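Note to self: keep these together.
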Amino acid sequence: MTTQQTKLEQYKLKLAHINDTHSHFDASRIQFTIDTQPKELTLYSHTGGYARIAYQLKQARAAAKDNQQSFLFLHGGDSFQGTLYFNEFKGKANSDLLNMLQPDAMVLGNHEIDAGSEPVVDFLNDIRFPLMAGNMDLSQECQQKKVRLGGHRNLLDFDPVSQTAKVLLKPLQDRQVAIIGITLDQMKEIARPDEDTHFVSAIQTTRRTVTQLKAQGIDHIIVLSHLGLDQDKVLAAEVDGISLIVGGHSHTLQGDFSALGLSNMPYGERVNDTAIVHAGKYAETLGIADILFDGKGKVLELTGGNYFMLDQQFILQASDDVSPQDYQDVRLTLESHPLILWDGEDSRVQNQILQKYRPSLDALNNKILGFVPKSLVHTRLPSKALPHGSEIAPWVSRSMYQETRELGIDVDFALHNAGGVRQSLDKGELSLAEVIGRILPFDIPLVTYEIQGQYLFQMLESAINAATNNSVIGTGAGSFPYTYGLKYFYDGRQALGQRIIKLELLRVVAGKPLWQRVDAAAYYTGVSSSYTTSGKEGYFPILQAIWQRDVEGLTLPGAFTRFISKTQILDEVLEPQVHYTSHHQL
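Structure:
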């Protein structure tokens, strides 16, 4: 084969990608740990955000044109939720600002469909790019629904006739590259799609679609995935012929950031000749890859990585004094790092954020609810450092319990899943913006229910098993339960069905608090979020409740906000109500 023929069989693509941005339009605070020997320094700066991403995208598009590369910009899903911008503007700010970034496509994430079809349809009506969900089957969607997803011009969903995903085709020199959007097939377990919205097998749908494309002579195939890195690896192993997977959902930062005290993972990891790329979370980084394919769609070369976009100025801290030389050493480290860019901004995007959206948020930041005398750490699972788990989730459960009772509803306990709390709580004044923007960004209704004691045992064990590796099929650590008024003792070394070794309920007897054993045959009244009471993520025994009722006018962040406003200061030490022992040492 001649050199000319070899060149004709090589296809160049510059790919830019983001995922799990969760409405983080502003630059995010970032912390690095840099060892300059013998001193270890902690660096604080800001990175990313949509204006910086827009600036870097402009540079990448221009570079692709100069180098005669095709160009794609893809979003790996979960644009919704996460900050005050979403609380205030729902999907409107997301669609507006994403349109300004001009992605070629985005895949549907689980948080896009947290509230069913209607917000997704609103988003679809506003965007100027396709939203992909090639394994979302709408063939059973009710034809009389006021708001329907099926047939929307901007949606590429499942084709029930061919049993394949609807595909986006983009130019790749003299060929075409096909993009398949695949999302979580267990969506009903972790989100709240409408009852008539179904999700079919990610693997089977991808396999059939790849086979169909290959039969049409299309060999360059990208899967835009919202499955998470582990499931992307399974997909790549199970389905031959995928050139590249551009992923999201697991918030995985690929690349070597060990010099900054962060992860060291391969960018573009290969499984079954398929390269897989992920770009972290919260618009902190932008993935940029230069890819060389052969004529059959195989990735011959993949270079690039996830790029932080940092402030020019930064703050350093150390155990002793920080010197001017320390600043020089750290700046040299940053400037020589191959995956750091700087804070160039697209003024048009930044002005849109500042003028159209920021004023509403500033008002919330100025409303102070109370004071936190010490930082409260949020971790989803117990650990050696935090044997009872999260320090903030129990306060959230207490607020649900107390504010529900303030409404005259006599509940025995509150129970909430770890994933509903998103961040730790820093020492200092606590603003309304902090609560609804960072700590509890999901505006989920509260629900009361009456349930027999035996199902409380089952529900707690099932949720913990799902959250830990004590489960055959876990749904993620977010299902771990935190309570108030209900104390449990879990031992993962015991046989299935016997791991809640003790369960107690808090009663007030003669004016004094008293813990009493839960009777498996008795009935108890609880309060949880509507997400938990839907039975997702291991909570399915809650569906055995003899009734469920919405708490009118009270949401998860609303309960916590009311509670803090009355309490003013979180200085009480809460009695641990989570006692967890794993089958392995913490």
